[in-house]
Structure formats: structure tokens, C-alpha cells
Amino acid sequence: MPHFSIVIPCYNAEPYIRDMLVSLLQNGAKESFELILIEDGSTDGTRKTIESVFEDSFLGKEERPLGHGERAGLLHYEKEGLNVYLFPKEKNEGVCKGRNDGLLLARGEFIIFLDADDVVEPGYFAFLVASSLEGKDMAMFGLFKTENGIEERVAPLQNYGELPEKERREVLFRQFIGMDLKAWSLWRKGKLSSCREWDGIYRYVFRRDFLLEHGLTFEQQTVPEEDNLFLAGCACCVGDVICFQEAFYHYFIRPTGLMRQAREASPLWKAEMYSRRTESLGNRIEEFQKANGAEVGYEAIAGTILGFFMRMGVFAPLRLHTKAFAPLYKVPSCRRTLKEGKLKDIDGLLGKGLLLLLKLRMLFLFHLLFRPLASYFKKHHP
To answer: Which of 21, 146, 163, 279 keeps 20 to 30 A from 270, CA to CA?
Structure first.
């Protein structure tokens, strides 16, 4: 029985999947791991690339239960001590379904969710095996994040395992649901990493039974922000947590990745996405308050809404801004919290956001209208 299960959904990952697989095979202590590859109906050469890496190590076919009476047919490989199980799908079902399937197929005591277009360092497996994870529901590590060729090291902001359980849940939940008012202010100044925990799922290790016992799964409708909502669900009921400053994972924000696409998407797409996200977020907030008997608080909820407001884009139609965060206001506890906050009610919150947008739009129009005039007078009337 493996101690760790690594789940990697793969969809049209032909340019990157070989590098990820090679990086995993370069690790020692592979006998303590199993690798589950969910080949999610790719239309490129992803499956062929995977099979080429393990072509001389095929052991046969294996079936495992997938829930609801279904069984998955897996292709079993073993290379250099690492047991690999490939689950080929006929059609694409999304990264969340892939991870959820991997959770059901896994047999390890602990489970790790990685992305197909990243890589790990050679010491990753050995460090995990040597770590004291027994009895821990969740472990948090550092990582290396690369965007536009610039690498940044991310590490846990504090040792959450040292906090009392109730406080630990409250702190982690507020970290994962989004930006509070303080974080929103720092985000505008480009200093977000100093006050908010990076929520990429690939820097966490989970006790598999903890996830299964609490029914914690990924929600496809929240992509591309499914990780933080999953982690928020974990924070509602997490027990012991351990944090490590060490970093073994290299995460790449690529031009074709979901995160980059989300940033450059149309306001309408963002409104739809944030509307789904805030609906799920409202559910998580209700779960947290029911499980822990504690209010999430005005600072966290209002800050999250204002953060949505800014990320939607300055020139997005106002109706789309309203659409994006309206589901959150429908949650009774969120509405009550906002009404008791400094802005009193949603109208005040909306008013502040609209005022900020109005100012930014006026500045932009001023720039468009008067800069050509200034250039003209400078040229003809020096």
C-alpha cells in the first residue's frame, strides 16, 4: 500500500507532461508513492507522450471503484520503483472532475494534487517520506512561482499548526476565501504576497481520509479559482496542520494557462465566473459558521467583494459588477455581516465602488481628451 498518492489531471499537456514525469522519476523513495494520471480526453498527443515515457514498463490492466457503482479501467505501469496508473477518458470532463476521480482512485494515506505543466525537484519524495505527517490533516509547503521569466519563492506566512484549533480554522478560512480590506489595499500596491497565503493546491498535502470523511471535493463551476474554495472547505473542519518553509515545486503561469486566460477574459466572462464563485463562497461561509459558531466578519466579506470589483476591470459595465457579487449578498449571514459593518449595507459598498470607478473613468477620459490638446499647444505655441 503506497504512503502517498499523486494525482495529475492531464488535458492537452503534450508540450509539458514529459518534463513533469521525468522530474518525478528523478526522485528517490519512489516505492512509497503511486502516480495516478487522469488523461482527460486530450485532443493532442498527451496520451502518446505519457505512454512513451513508460513504454517498456506496462504491467497490465486494473480496475478500481469510482463511486456510484462505477469502476475505472486503469493501465498499470511500474518504472524505477514508481507505480503509475493511467486512467484514459474518452471525453474531457474538466480538472475538478479529474481531481475528484483521482481522490476516489487513490490508495495512499496522503494525497497530493499536481498540475501537468509544472515540475518538482529531485528531493521532493525523500522530504515527504521523512516528514512527520502522521496524524496531520494537511501539510503546507513553499513553492517557486514563475511568470514572464521571473521566479518568486513563496512560503507559508506563519506556522498555523501552533494556533489553537478554532483560531487556526478562522485564520486559514479568511486566508483562503479572498482578500480582506487590508489585503485588498496591499493588492492595489502590488504587495499581496505579504498578507495572503498563496492558495495553489500543488503546495499542499492532505490526509485522504480527512477529505473523504468531510466530503471535500473540487467544484468545476468555480474554475479557475477552484483551489481556494476547496481549501476554504478544508479550513472549515481541519484538525492538525504542519507547515514547512522548504520548496520543491515549480509552478509556471503560462500564456495558455487558465490563470492568464482569466486575467485577459472579457468582462462578461468574468462576471459569470465571479457570480458562480461568490455563490460557492457563500455556501462555504455558511458551512464555516455552522461548523465553528463564528462569524467570518465584515473585513473579510467586504474586502472580497471590493477585490472582485477591481479585478472585473474599471470599464466593465456596472451591471456586470453587480452580477458578480450579488450571490454573496443573498446569503443571510453575509448580508447581516455587511449591514453591521462600517458601510452599513450593500448600497454603501456599491456606492464606494462606483465612486472609485467613476473617478478612474474620468481620469482616463481626461487623458484621452486633453493630452492631444496639450501636445498641439506645445507644438504650435511653444
So the answer is: 146
